[in-house]
């Protein structure tokens, strides 16, 4: 961690932490309820961070006011889907940088010493671990930590399990149930008794396989947070004796009758570890799954690739490239099951990526060794 410094009656400092990879603020000024949104926005755009010392809810109002000013420059659809995507990501990065300049200070016990501030200590312990002294974070990040605590407490209902999955901070939540439904209804290979779930995240697909009667499931993930989350969920659901969580390697040791992989759908560079559930630089996880599959399947086994075609519709990958990668890995396509998304963004015509999202198809590719 790095250190930020500011003047507040005297010179002060605190450690700087950013889960989203925001750079260390080089200039920090103290701000409170007297700070006008126009001034805050100008300072943030110039690179000055604002350490908030006023009322907690006034800070949230200021953040919303700054966001409205940023929204006036939001891009529309560009000439091509790929250009629209690049502009969209550039705008999102700019928005994160500007809003990330409004900071709060977490005290040694993870408390927030602001008027009307909620108790955030438990949420911060779950996200960051035990406190190691005062730390400055962006208010946007803290709001994400608080929201993650609520997600973790309440869970996400998964129809295929008729149960709730409880995502941890920094682990992609299974809010899009259509891809889970594909794994729940695809025909299992004959005689399947062992399966791998690669990139398990919350453990939702491993739990679905266990619910379907697979007796041994190994769930892997590169992220320690995801592995802890997956184990928490499979244990809650009563599958602790069926599912084993491993990592950080993509493939565990041995072979399986079924290997399931739902890699991040967008082959673009993640801005931080929080993006790893969505972005897969160069399609690295996709190709790792395909290239290793033939050597990890039991005779007669299958690999299930769960993948959206959103990258194809955004011009980031072609269908021909995907088919070539499957063939180059020594695999054949047994079947493909398709589904359409049901999330709200499909209907949001103000989204610059609306055309691609509205046409998106998510597929489960059943792959086998010839």
From TrEMBL:
Q: Name one GO biological process term.
A: methylation
Show the GO MF annotations: nucleic acid binding; protein-glutamine N-methyltransferase activity
Q: Which Gene3D superfamilies match?
A: Vaccinia Virus protein VP39
Domain named Methyltransferase small: which ranges? 195-306
- Record's keyword terms, sorted: Methyltransferase, Ribonucleoprotein, Ribosomal protein, Transferase
Kindly state one GO CC term assigned in the UniProt record: ribosome
Q: What is this protein called?
A: Putative Ribosomal protein L11 methyltransferase
């Amino acid at each position: 961690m790095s250190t930020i410094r500011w003047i507040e009656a005297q010179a002060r400092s605190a450690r700087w932490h950013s889960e989203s990879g925001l750079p260390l603020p080089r200039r920090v000024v103290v701000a409170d309820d007297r700070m006008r949104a126009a001034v805050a926005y100008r300072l943030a755009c110039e690179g000055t961070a604002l350490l908030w010392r006023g009322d907690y809810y006034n800070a949230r109002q200021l953040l919303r006011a700054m966001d409205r000013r940023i929204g006036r420059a939001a891009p529309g659809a560009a000439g091509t889907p790929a250009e629209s995507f690049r502009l969209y990501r550039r705008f999102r990065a700019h928005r994160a940088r500007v809003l990330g300049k409004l900071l709060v200070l977490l005290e040694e016990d993870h408390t927030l010493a602001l008027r009307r501030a909620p108790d955030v200590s438990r949420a911060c312990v779950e996200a960051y671990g035990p406190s190691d002294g005062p730390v400055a974070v962006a208010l946007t990040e803290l709001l994400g930590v608080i929201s993650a605590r609520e997600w973790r407490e309440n869970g996400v209902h998964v129809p295929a399990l008729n149960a709730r999955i409880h995502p941890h901070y920094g682990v992609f939540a299974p809010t899009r149930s259509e891809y889970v439904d594909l794994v729940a209804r695809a025909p299992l290979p004959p005689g399947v008794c062992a399966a791998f779930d690669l990139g398990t995240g919350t453990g939702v697909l491993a739990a679905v396989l266990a619910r379907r009667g697979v007796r041994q499931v190994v769930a892997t993930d590169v992220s320690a947070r995801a592995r802890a989350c997956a184990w928490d969920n499979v244990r809650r659901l009563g599958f602790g004796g069926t599912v084993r969580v491993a990592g950080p390697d993509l493939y565990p040791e041995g072979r399986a009758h079924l290997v399931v992989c739902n890699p991040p759908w967008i082959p673009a560079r993640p801005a931080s570890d929080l993006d790893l559930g969505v972005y897969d630089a160069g399609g690295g996880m996709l190709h790792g799954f395909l290239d290793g599959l033939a050597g990890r399947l039991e005779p007669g086994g299958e690999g299930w690739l769960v993948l959206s075609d959103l990258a194809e519709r955004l011009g980031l990958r072609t269908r021909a490239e995907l088919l070539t990668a499957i063939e180059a890995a020594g695999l054949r396509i047994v079947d493909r099951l398709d589904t359409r998304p049901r999330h709200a963004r499909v209907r949001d015509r103000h989204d610059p990526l609306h055309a691609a999202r509205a046409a998106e198809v998510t597929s489960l590719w059943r792959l086998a060794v010839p």
